[in-house]
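Review form for a predicted model. The reviewer records the input and the model, then writes brief findings.
Reviewer: anonymous (R2)
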Amino acid sequence: MEQADLIWLNGELVAWEDAKVHVLTHGLHYGTGVFEGIRCYDTEIGPAVFRHQAHMDRLFKSAELYYMPIPFDREQLRQATLELIGANGFRSCYIRPLVYRGYGTMGLFPLDAPVDVTIATWEWAAYLGEAGKRDGIRAKVSSWRRISPDSLIPHAKASGQYLNSILAKIESHKAGYEEAILLDDHGYVCEGSGENIFVVRDGVIATPPQTASILDGINRMSVVQIARDLGFEVAERNLARAELYLADEVFMTGTAAELVPVREIDDHAIGDGKPGEISRAIQVAFDDALHGRTERYREWLDPVPAAAYARSSTQVA
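Model under review:
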């Protein structure tokens, strides 16, 4: 990964190489952490964070679900993020806030361990590649099922839960595919290893509901609204595995991946094996929203103040 100059750690800007944790940090041993994936884009109104408040809200909700009181409020973390982007001199970047149980105690009872917060930013291209966004990707339905709500909390973006996605991702990679698709514990389509999924058939867009153990993605919510604004019907319902193969189009959304068409699943070509017209129309409109080219969605952008770029390296802790 490409290194930036600074990372925000517990209220201070520190040099990238100095942002360290103890080897007995609780979150390192037990996965007791929650995080977000956010992007800043160089837009027509200047560098701006996409759906910043929605991401902060989800971060705090995830932390609450795992009994982790964050020692900063939403506005403090929002301002810290904007200042960090400016201090690193980024016009566009990926943003990773992380809230985790730190050093101080060991064992499965976590409430005596401190809650630490860090925010990192770095330049990161589209997760599944520009070629994937343009031409579509090949995916495989994983043998691993998505975590059940009977065991963990799928709605929380929690660190330890991503072992589930890692197993699916490695399996798909070793089999020669770009991405994995997980089914839920009832056998319905759930999501990708790091993306939500949409299926298009006979002009109607369908996506799994929150009861299917999905993470309620910020980009998912954005694309649902954009699709409806474009006049498409969007249904949130259970999807059988076979509906993936019978679909006219399939696409996936996520902050890291943005919007990526799927051209093949389990060696079945989707439609004619190329990104479809509806996927393309939504992709274009979504990209316009990300980059501030559409006035209708400007409220989704949180501009980085020009003053943030004036922060001097002498302010490093």
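Findings: Residues 6-124 form a domain with the D-amino Acid Aminotransferase; Chain A, domain 1 fold (CATH 3.30.470.10).
Further findings: The chain has two domains: 6-124, 130-293.
Recommendation: see findings above.
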